[in-house]
Amino acid sequence: MTHPTDFARDPARPALPVHLRTALWLAELGLPAMPLREGKMPFGNCRTCTRSACGDRPHMKVAGPCVCPAPCHGWAAATTDPDILTSPAWAKAWSEAAAVAYHPGGGGYTVVDLDNADAIAWARETLPATKTVATTRGEHWIYLGTMTSHNAARPGVDIKSAWSYARWLGPGTGRMALLPDAVRALAVKEVTVAAPATAAVPARPGDAVCRHRSPAYLERGIAMAEQRITEAATAVHATVYRTFLAVLSAHGWCGCLIGNHIDRLFTAAQAKGESLRHCEIAWTNARMKLGM
Prior knowledge:
four-stranded antiparallel β-sheet, globular, alpha+beta, six-stranded mixed β-sheet
């Protein structure tokens, strides 16, 4: 399967603005796209949404519930919906757009933005080779997997994934690798409690004793979560995310969750049609929502 960063030029839609055509190409591959104005900046909020009067929540790193038709709210405006991208409300933005951006985390990716030669040298010595895109000042190294975005994670290095956007600069070269521990570790340095790179869940500081009364308590919780996913008739993706969030909230802080429990939840979700990648993204987003 071709990754969004492997997308080649499409001669279709010649009447559309070039940046809109690029956005539609990315959207077709599941990569949320948005216009950028001069200076690599997103378009500002409309009058209705100024100062979050619309009730939006991007400032809380959660997209929605605003349904403004304009390309508002920075990274949260990125979408894969072609009807929104080509809507009259977005026409003026596309006519003025200087570039296209995408939401890496929304597509399941992380961009390591290397701003100078020293940062590139560090990456070549430290990180596994992956998809590489040349930028004005350095390179974007793109990995498969999501994490929390961080600016200035180290000198000359920004991490763009969840709750962030990156400028689309072309397909790049090389084969995309999985997001390595070395990149996740850059974000860990900025928090009090380090979160591991695997699906294991860290213990909350001070939780030296398991809060569960017996192993049966945890088993019952996992079984109920499996049943909730299995019985979902509609909105399966949302149900999977909410179920993962509930499991982590109830059982995630004491360190009792193990790979077998997570595998059971993923298996139940995949049986309802969810892909492994969507399961991993939902699990990661639930952990980030809880600050794990």
